[in-house]
Amino acid sequence: MKSKAEIFFESIKNKKVAFIGIGVSHIDTAKLFLAQGIETIVCDRRERDSFGTTADELENLGANLRFGNSYLENLGADIVFRSPGVYFYSKELSSLRDSGAVITSEMEVFFDLCPCKTIAVTGSEGKTTTTTIISEMLKAQGKTVHLGGNIGKALLPIIFEITPDDFAVVELSSFQLLSMRPSPAISIVTNLTPDHLDVHSSMEEYVDAKRNIFLHQNAFSRTVLNDDNAITKSFEPQPRGERMMFSLSKPVHHGAYLQDGILYRSLNGKAEAVISASDIKLPGLHNVANYLTAICAVTGYVDSENILKAAKEFGGVEHRLELVREVNGVKWYNDSIATAPPAVIAGLRAFSQKLIIIGGGYDKNIPFDDMAPDIVERVKLLILTGPTAVKIEAAVKNVPAYKQGSPEIIMAADIPEAVKIAAQNAKAGDIVSLSPASASFDAYPNFAARGRHFKELVNVL
Description:
Layout: H1 4-11, E1 16-20, H2 24-35, E2 39-44, H3 53-60, E3 64-67, E4 79-82, H4 91-98, E5 102-104, H5 106-113, E6 117-122, H6 127-140, E7 145-149, E8 167-171, H7 174-177, E9 186-189, H8 203-215, E10 222-226, H9 230-234, E11 242-247, E12 255-259, E13 262-267, E14 270-276, H10 285-298, H11 304-313, E15 322-327, E16 330-334, H12 341-349, E17 355-359, H13 372-378, E18 379-384, H14 389-397, E19 408-411, H15 415-425, E20 431-434, H16 447-459
Parallel strand pairs: 1-2, 1-4, 2-3, 4-5, 6-8, 6-9, 7-8, 9-10, 10-11, 11-12, 16-20, 17-18, 17-20, 18-19
Antiparallel strand pairs: 12-13, 13-14, 15-16
Helix pairs in contact: 6-10, 6-11, 13-14
């Protein structure tokens, strides 16, 4: 019997397929389509020189390459794969849809064809860590796990290697979910706060994109929602299948919750202790929430013993409160993934002392008012850089409890200067954290590149 993937590729043998954006996922996915004998176009707004030998490799495999500002003109493709960075409602994609092209994505097709159980995580904060925790729990149980979406690797290129007994665990952004109609078997929304409003037309569009993660599930699915977040709580009546809630503040009837330092799982009102918060290697109450979320996701697939194993052994993901090194008694943390205020707040609350914070970056048109009181209370020195620096400074100074010099605020030209200022002001026992509350696009291609550069600067101090 032929698999869904085999049937799919046979059905498009005579179609012309285009990939917009030459990133890692599209390179590997384009190679898969070329190997299936499908006419493939790979295009990018950047010039060919930006891609070095990658362009030569794709061309040698038979791809038709298009570069520069006219890369989408007269494309002539029947099927178009967009990268998450290409806005679904852009003028270019709207024009392609009007011409009859099918607009899809690597992740959307993967969900259609995947033969195994799919688990997907979205939210404004905590999704990367939660996705990874779920993966670690499943692996501790002995499951074969394929980690993808925004982390891990592209999964469509390995579609023929995945078996029905495996698990695919993915992190999804609002940009990916905006156009997605297949939903995973297990959907998770960690929390929702204003984010990416520089791209989405409104907060409503952003929330609706996130909701797509569960809207198209069947009756045998599971949705995990945050009972403590007003927006995700409002989703509670909407999922079609099993609904599990999690909470840091109160017991829930069906899901997981924290009470007196213990993480409980409750199934239809019958609660059992799973692990203690003190078992969790990762610091901070926000990571307790991440574990509550993961416990809901793996219920029925991972036993308590292996949940405990993951909690005790998992040390965190790169760029999220990552300890870089200790220099002269000063600990330096890389929290570059904290691109919005709630993540910064969680990072500040993970420590019991006042911090030196390096913040600022690309402006996503989100407010900083909610973060400002925590900065006043928990920061001794605030070093700001990038386009959002002035906005963050204004929000902090507008807090009633703010007093001149508490925290001290210093402006820096860039991250290297900010690190230099922090090193000059830090004393033994201090903690310095890169906690931007902003995207990186003013100076770096992504938060990971910013985090790596920060670590390089710290490692040569």
